[in-house]
């Protein structure tokens, strides 16, 4: 009888859907959070040396970082030796970074850091994402207030919808701006999850596999940007990972 029971259980396990035997979300977070970094600038000659601007994450060889194009500064103060910085770990260790490729249309930027490689995300397939799929994203919603502790939110893909442009001026949407989103549309993921300004550039991933599905880039704001922390809308937009594949290809990198 025990042998028959074991055989029965073995047969059931063989036919279980793959997702049911994959790691759960806590295990996935523990695995991917080390690939999530802060993005900003560093000015060694200034009293406030570090300035946090958003979230990023490691890809490819572990020395390349993806974030939103709008997270990067439009200019740097050369006289003060200001440079783009990637902040690693809870203490926010500074790693100097340089721009490699920027895609303003899809609000994506690829950077390269100095020093040793870090854990990196594996890329998933955006074409397999369906409305109703569970997703998670990890980042630094309020920046390094008490240290760079990665924060994870989860939700579902509420819609796969056209959007006109993901550039700098559209990073925070309100009802008035939506009326102007009519030219050069492309599809984005609308998530029923709450993100904040510091989440710009956060990786959106499959909660079971940890594979990258998109990049957070916009938050729907009901009234003003100032109200987002006290009254979030719970609507977030993400750029599908396929546009990141194109960006990596332009840089001569394999996902």
TrEMBL record:
Annotated InterPro entries: Peptidase_S1_PA, Peptidase_S1_PA_chymotrypsin, Peptidase_S1C
Single GO biological process annotation from the record: proteolysis
Protein name: Serine protease
UniProt keyword Mitochondrion, yes or no: no
Organism placement in taxonomy: Bacteria, Pseudomonadati, Pseudomonadota, Gammaproteobacteria, Chromatiales
GO MF assignments: serine-type endopeptidase activity
Record-linked SUPFAM superfamilies: Trypsin-like serine proteases
Keyword entries, A-Z: Hydrolase, Protease
């Amino acid at each position: 009888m025990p042998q028959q029971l074991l055989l029965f259980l073995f047969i059931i396990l063989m036919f279980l859907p793959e997702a049911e035997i994959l790691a759960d979300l806590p295990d996935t977070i523990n695995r991917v959070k080390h690939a999530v970094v802060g993005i900003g600038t560093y000015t060694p000659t200034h009293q406030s040396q570090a300035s946090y601007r958003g979230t990023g994450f490691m890809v490819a060889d572990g020395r390349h970082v993806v974030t939103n194009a709008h997270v990067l500064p439009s200019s740097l103060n050369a006289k003060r030796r200001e440079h783009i910085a990637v902040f690693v770990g809870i203490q926010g260790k500074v790693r100097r970074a340089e721009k490699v490729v920027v895609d303003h249309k899809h609000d994506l930027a690829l950077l390269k850091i100095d020093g040793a490689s870090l854990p990196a995300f594996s890329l998933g397939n955006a074409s397999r994402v369906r409305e109703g799929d569970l997703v998670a994203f990890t980042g630094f919603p309020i920046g390094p207030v008490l240290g760079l502790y990665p924060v994870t939110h989860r939700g579902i893909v509420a819609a796969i919808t056209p959007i006109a442009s993901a550039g700098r001026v559209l990073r925070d949407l309100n009802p008035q701006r939506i009326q102007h989103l009519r030219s050069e549309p492309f599809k984005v993921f609308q998530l029923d999850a709450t993100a904040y300004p510091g989440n710009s550039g956060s990786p959106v991933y499959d909660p079971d596999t940890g594979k990258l599905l998109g990049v957070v880039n916009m938050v729907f704001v009901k009234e003003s940007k100032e109200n987002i922390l006290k009254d979030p809308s719970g609507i977030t937009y993400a750029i599908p990972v396929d546009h990141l594949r194109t960006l990596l290809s332009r840089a001569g990198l394999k996902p």
